[in-house]
């Protein structure tokens, strides 16, 4: 038992050495150090800076102090400690000419906006808030911009219900219709509902894409088979089917062949070459010679009308016998 107590005491001493310095260090931090360690910046005035810098600085600083749970009194103290040079001299002048009970965080913001933030800038941010919609932003991105711009539209969202209603109405339609309206609803609860709904819709979209891709892959083999069958059918009809007549030729009822013009069987000419000087059985041309010369009858006649030398002598007549 004593041994366990000694071990516990040793562990406590180790923990004190590890955590003690950090705890004391955090306790000694000034407000300025705490703010700057969380991302706030010093403000020196408007000399040499863009016109929107003062408004942006006050927005960011207030957001950080809200995250740190600063009271209004501590916010005023902290933000004054961030002023330097021109801005610090300006605040000293304002402070001297203002009653002490009027010095507050809201007063500071109003005089900063009046001195450094132009009316056109404030009106622009108010219009931006009025026209703000989610569009292609995520819910988290839309929430951040909504909260930042809502400072310029306090009259439009004075109550919690108005803030929630405006946030919901500016969501995308596919999210808005899935969030049931409620009279009593905190903004952070509405934001969480919107984020969950967004995740569900995103998952459904991914599932549809995967299913569509799977169906496409499953259908590709059958399409390939159909294309192959169609090709085989087309090739087979050319090879094994009836001979296809050349363009412009018709089937002759007299000879059963395809040709143009009057049938040679009626003129008693050669059905192979078209010559009137002999019949097909006495034609000096073979089938392959006729094909090589071409299918035009007039061309064949010009070739055949000059028969080989001595042909008539060998037949002893004109070859019509």
TrEMBL record:
UniProt-listed Pfam families:
Retrotrans_gag
Q: Give GO terms: molecular function aspect only.
A: nucleic acid binding; zinc ion binding
Keyword Zinc-finger in the entry? The reply is yes
- Taxonomically, which superkingdom? Eukaryota
Q: Does the keyword Zinc-finger apply?
A: yes
Q: Which UniProt keywords apply?
A: Metal-binding, Zinc, Zinc-finger
Start and end residues of each CCHC-type domain: 270-284
Where do the record's region annotations for Disordered lie?
A: 201-241
Q: Which InterPro entries match?
A: Retrotrans_gag_dom (IPR005162), Znf_CCHC (IPR001878)
Where do Basic and acidic residues bias regions lie? Answer: 201-220
Name under which the protein is recorded: CCHC-type domain-containing protein
Q: What is the lineage of its organism?
A: Eukaryota, Viridiplantae, Streptophyta, Embryophyta, Tracheophyta
């Amino acid at each position: 038992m004593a041994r366990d107590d000694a071990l516990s005491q040793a562990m406590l001493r180790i923990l004190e050495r590890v955590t003690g310095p950090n705890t004391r260090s955090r306790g000694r931090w000034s407000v300025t150090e705490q703010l700057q360690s969380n991302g706030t910046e010093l403000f020196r005035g408007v000399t040499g800076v863009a016109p929107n810098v003062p408004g942006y600085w006050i927005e960011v600083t207030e957001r950080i102090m809200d995250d740190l749970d600063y009271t209004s009194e501590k916010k005023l103290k902290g933000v004054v400690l961030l002023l330097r040079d021109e801005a610090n001299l300006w605040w000293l002048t304002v402070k001297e000419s203002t009653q002490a009970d009027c010095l507050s965080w809201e007063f500071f913001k109003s005089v900063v906006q009046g001195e450094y933030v132009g009316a056109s800038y404030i009106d622009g941010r108010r219009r931006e808030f009025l026209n703000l919609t989610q569009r292609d932003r995520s819910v988290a991105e839309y929430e951040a911009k909504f909260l930042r711009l809502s400072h310029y539209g306090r009259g439009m969202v004075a109550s919690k219900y108005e803030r929630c209603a405006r946030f919901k109405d500016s969501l995308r339609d596919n999210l808005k219709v899935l969030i049931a309206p409620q009279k009593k609803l905190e903004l952070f609860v509405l934001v969480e509902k919107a984020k969950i709904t967004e995740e569900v819709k995103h998952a459904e979209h991914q599932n549809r894409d995967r299913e569509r891709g799977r169906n496409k892959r499953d259908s590709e083999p059958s399409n390939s088979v159909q294309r192959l069958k169609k090709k085989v059918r087309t090739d087979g009809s050319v090879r094994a089917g009836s001979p296809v007549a050349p363009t412009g030729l018709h089937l002759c009822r007299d000879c059963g062949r395809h040709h143009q013009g009057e049938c040679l069987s009626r003129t008693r000419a050669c059905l192979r070459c078209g010559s009137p000087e002999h019949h097909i059985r006495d034609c000096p041309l073979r089938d392959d010679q006729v094909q090589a010369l071409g299918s035009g009858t007039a061309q064949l006649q010009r070739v055949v009308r000059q028969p080989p030398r001595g042909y008539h002598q060998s037949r002893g007549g004109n070859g019509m016998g």
